Amino acid sequence: xxxxxxxxxxxxxxxxxxxxxxxxxxxxxxxxxxxxxxxxxxxxxxxxxxxxxxxxxxxxxxxxxxxxxxxxxxxxxxxxxxxxxxxxxxxxxxxxxxxxxxxxxxxxxxxxxxxxxxxxxxxxxxxxxxxxxxxxxxxxxxxxxxxxxxxxxxxxxxxxxxxxxxxxxxxxxxxxxxxxxxxxxxxxxxxxxxxxxxxxxxxxxxxxxxxxxxxxxxxxxxxxxxxxxxxxxxxxxxxxxxxxxxxxxxxxxxxxxxxxxxxxxxxxxxxxxxxxxxxxxxxxxxxxxxxxxxxxxxxxxxxxxxxxxxxxxxxxxxxxxxxxxxxxxxxxxxxxxxxxxxxxxxxxxxxxxxxxxxxxxx
Length: 362
Ligand code: PEP
Ligand code: MN
Fold this sequence. Notes:
Bound molecules: phosphoenolpyruvate, manganese (II) ion
CATH class of the largest domain: Alpha Beta
Largest sheet: 8 strands, parallel
Radius of gyration: 24 Å
Distance between the termini: 63 Å
CATH topology of the largest domain: TIM Barrel
Strand content: 5-15%
């Protein structure tokens, strides 16, 4: 076990050891006092390496607070200087880049609503040609890993040497207690595509609720993510943007101190882990065997439907299945959403299989 410690961004990029980077600061820079006091308190309570602050806020709906702009950029830089903490700001076009560089930001980040647009990403990448500044690229709002990897590639191709990814979750219409679904598997997909790119987790935009920041941060650490970006405000309840998900600096300190950070996979094989994995392997075999038996039955059902001229898909039956199995999941303290998704997949393949069988017959 290790702890998070303050480090330089260059040190972090160049290190191969697991040593998570902490980025903290308000969602938006609101006033010189708010920024400075927040920065001072963060510095007092947590091992922060980069001070964040949004200056231009890409908001989903017009009329929401859209950031103060260039004036706020200065307040962020001043707070950074005063607390001796490097700063990072979101840029969404070449003008933002020019201003952030002029004022002396140390790191830039690309927001989720910008990563979705290759034109803007390319414009920013070109505005950074010949400039040595690290760039953090948030995942696009929707789960399109190609866009995420593509944006990272645009910076690398334009000559930015230090580029990292930020996993901030994905928009979903499914009912969830998160603001954005973590869909952790996408960060594994990104890792598989770009193993050299470090990934920071932004639990604030995943959770959308400050009471969930600790649990999301712990999952990120368990999955070996290399940093955390946590929205922190001196008085979250009166924040002009994202008030529900911001934490106070002292809460940030508590969260960071209580995280379990794994240094590496144990070198000595862990007997308890091995036994549990063997048990999982047996259960996984059983899952495949049961599914195979289910498909055998589906085959017989398809033959009857064909013979009797019945349609393959029966809405009522499908709704009944979902209702019964999600209720069953709930009674067994399992996630109904997971069981719903699992059966949607099983059912999709069952319908495809029957369609294929009936096509062959006719
Ligand atoms: C932010 O970090 O404040 C922000 C707007 O995030 P995202 O781009 O992830 O929505
Ligand atoms: Mn925010």
